[in-house]
Amino acid sequence: MSVFTLIVFKLAAGLLLDRLFGEVPRYHPLVGFGRWSNAVEARVRAWSASRLAGMLAWLLAVGPWVGLALLVRDMHPLAHWPVDIALLYFALGGRSLTEHAEAIALPLEAGKLDEARQRTGWIVSRDTSVLDAEGVARAGTESVLENGNDAVFGALFWFLLAGGPGVLLFRLANTLDAMWGYRTQQYLRFGWAAARIDDLLNALPARLTALTYAVLGRTRQALECWRRQAPSWDSPNAGPVMAAGAGALDLKLGGAAIYHGQEEIRPQLGEGSAPDARAIRAAVSLVRRGILLWLAVAGLIALALERLHA
Question: Is the separation of the CB atoms in 155 and 171 below 8 Å?
């Protein structure tokens, strides 16, 4: 088996494990990493909360685990098989994303708005207590589209580029951005490095995700929304992903949302109809079809490279 075919095999194995088993929250390695990162933050903050301190904390939190992955992976010629597949599996969140989306769509369809608001609050940082049905559907759809990159395609990209250690680096960096990358008084300086590193690691995957959404939906509209609307979004990576996704699904997203007690008037993303429960499921379907597309393209590239090197 050539190295190119082997990479695709590992990719398929990791995706299959995620589809079959999803996350195991109680024993998931990211739970332990979160505790480790909190301990590192406490120690470093006792010295300083500057940008430099935040960078040091990031290196102390991430560096040992990526180094350990590299060490274990190279201990034996066959070690890279289980190590790479396991790291990809733990980095993926495709099934979890689907389950969280369905947990919002089901009560929303049944008219159980309070339950739908509560479930939405599990996966978004905005205040969901005042959302109407359309607002819940909008938040759920936006979350699926954005996390399609963070939980799926970004991980696939870094695995294809740098194997298990690469996908581990991506997932830990993404986790620290979620923990420290806030623009609040507490994290404005300390979390600067975590936010910037995550932006850097996501720059190319986010645009490939946006392109994936465009190819699998209303392509022309998605590309136009990406071009016109993404630059006005506050995140350089979420903008292309969500604008292209909204355009691909013929949906109108964005608009007002409440974060930390403050209302933010966000730019419009996409064109078309207002979202409902069906829009959440359509976003999930878009991500799933994107996974199949990435797997097919990776397989074709591996086949072409194998023939080229034959």
Answer: yes
At 28, phi and psi to the nearest 5? -70, 135
Q: Tally Cβ neighbours within 10 Å of residue 272.
A: 16
287 and 99 in contact (C-beta within 8 Å)? Answer: no
Within 13 Å of residue 177, how many CA atoms lie on the same side as its CB?
Answer: 16
- Those residues whose C-beta lies under 8 Å from the C-beta of residue 275, and which sit 6 or more positions away, are 134, 137, 138, 140, 141, 251, 252, 253
Count CB atoms within 10 A of the CB of residue 7: 19
- pLDDT at position 4 is 80
The letter for the amino acid at 128 is T
pLDDT at 25 (0 to 100): 66
Q: Which pLDDT belongs to residue 26?
A: 66
Quick one: pLDDT at residue 1? 64
Look at phi and psi of residue 264 and say left if phi exceeds 0, alpha if psi is from -120 to 50, else beta.
beta
> Hey, what are 173's tokens?
């960096």
Cβ proximity of 241 and 149 under 8 Å: yes
Name the phi and psi angles at 186, rounded to 5.
-70, -35
Instruction: State residue 98 phi and psi, 5-degree precision.
Output: -65, -45
Helices 3-21 & 80-91, crossing angle to 10 degrees?
Answer: 40
Counting as low any pLDDT under 50, the low residues of the chain are none
Q: How far apart are CA 99 and CA 88, in angstroms?
A: 19
Question: Can you tell me the distance from the alpha carbon of 269 to that of 285, in angstroms, rounded to the nearest whole number?
Answer: 19
What kind and span of H or E run contains 206?
Answer: helix 192-216
| Alpha helix stretches (DSSP H) within 122-189 | 133-148, 154-180
d(CA 93, CA 113): 26
| CA pair distance 16, 13, nearest whole angstrom | 5
d(CA 179, CA 54): 12
Token digits of residue 304: 């072409």
pTM: 0.95
Integer Cα distance of 270 and 101 in angstroms = 20
